Amino acid sequence: MTKASQLEAKTVSEAGKSHLVNGNKSSEHEPTFRRRHVLDLDDFSVDEINAVLQNANAMKEVLQRDIKKVPTLRGKSVITLFYENSTRTRVSFEQAGKILSADVINVSNSGSSAEKGESLYNTALTLQAMNADIIVVRHPDSGAPHFLSRFLDASVINAGDGLHAHPTQSLLDMYTIKEYLGEIAGLKVVIVGDMLYSRVARSNLWGLTKMGANIVLCGPPTLMPTDFINGGKDMEGHPFSAVTIEPNLEKALEGADVIMTLRLQLERQRAGHLPTLREYSKIYGINQKRLDLAKPGALVMHPGPMNEGVEIDSEVAHGARSVIEAQVTNGVAIRMALLYSVVTPGRESI
Ligand code: CP
Question: Is 91 in the pocket of ligand 1 (CB under 6 A)?
Fold first, then answer.
């Protein structure tokens, strides 16, 4: 039985009987996802991360079919509540929900009563009163999804909050790394760019270090949260002990397995963090010559949207080592896995 058919079989079974539809249930340990909300990866166990990645494998099989539809979330409603612009995250959550047969409703700041001054609290209560099972929220304020999770009965999934966290991006990044390189543990992952304002970098710091990657951070000193990193490194057993800060990009890239370049938020120049974009690109831009310093099979990743010609050259962004489009495809599988997991917490992985 394929993973995808297991998924369908499970959707028609009762949760408590899920082992019956697995056929020959393995006695090996199966990673299990036990949470109702997905707010960040700082409190995720390795087991829970593995459960999401494993469930995403089954979801990816569904994505590769001619008819991409399973009844898993039939009768459930998913509301995407986006107070910031998004292409990848919003569309992939919508697609994920629809493939799983959920009813998906998109609400954005623009055009909603938020424009008339309705608070986040009242907006969320209103959506819950319409029986939302899952609310996927993106908000410019760090902590907004945590705030919602304190009073909503619905599951809350963080789709990016301020400069705090973007856990679903990190999960899809880890899935992509595993897909191409097999394992995450022991890999040298170089993250380049604006670490200070990047919620993607923060979630990846938690996720990748928990999974055993050795992370090297490289970026302008004005955009490096040195206290955040070193505060963790000073604590015994803290995952950030596997993080190094290397200001020289050429040195950082030597022997890299993965190069993850971040979007330069262009407003940082206006805020005085950078002299010019040209200088930033000259010192921190990923071009072919710099890519050659990494391992021959190194992956080039970018969460998007990209400023081509600033943090990454076009020939690298669209070159043979780039997995940027695979990240987008895997984002749908990861978000399907998360929607499935939060409504069935405690169930073994598919
Ligand atoms: N990576 C990411 O969050 O992209 P969007 O802003 O397009 O969702």
Answer: no
pLDDT tens for 94-131 read: 999 999 999 999 999 898 999 999 999 999 999 999 99
Q: How many CB atoms lie within 10 A of CB 153?
A: 9
Given a contact cutoff of 8 angstroms between Cβ atoms, the answer to whether 18 and 348 are in contact is yes
Of the pLDDT bands very low, low, confident and very high (cuts 50, 70, 90), residue 2 is low
Domain 167-327, second-level architecture:
3-Layer(aba) Sandwich (3.40)
Task: Give the pLDDT confidence score for residue 6 in this predicted structure.
Answer: 59
Q: DSSP alpha helices (H): ranges in the chain? A: 3-11, 18-21, 46-63, 88-99, 120-129, 144-149, 167-181, 199-210, 226-233, 249-253, 267-270, 277-284, 288-291, 314-317, 324-343
Binding site membership of 80 for ligand 1 (Cβ less than 6 Å): no
Global confidence as pTM: 0.91
Which ligand 1 atom is at minimum distance from the Cα of 87? 7
> What is the per-residue pLDDT across 199-237, written as a single tens digit (0 to 9) for each?
999 999 999 999 999 999 999 999 998 888 888 777 777
Residue 64, ligand 1, Cβ within 6 A: no
Residue (of 164, 43, 147, 142) closest to 156 by Cα position: 147
Counting from 1 in the atom list of ligand 1, the atom nearest the Cα of 160 is 3
Does the C-beta of 219 come closer than 6 Å to ligand 1? no
| Most informative mutation of 82, 83, 88 for ligand 1 (most atoms within 8 A of CB) | 88
Would you tell me which CATH number, out of the four given (3.40.50.1370, 2.70.70.10, 3.30.230.10, 3.40.630.30), belongs to the domain 3-165+330-343?
A: 3.40.50.1370
Domain ranges of the chain: 3-165+330-343, 167-327
Q: Which of 81, 84, 87 to mutate to test the pocket of ligand 1 (most atoms within 8 A of CB)?
A: 87
Cβ of 95 below 6 Å from ligand 1: no
Domains 3-165+330-343 and 167-327 share a fold: yes
86 lines ligand 1 (CB under 6 A): yes
Atom of ligand 1 nearest to the CA of 138: 8
Q: How far is 350 from 346, CA to CA, in rounded Å?
A: 12
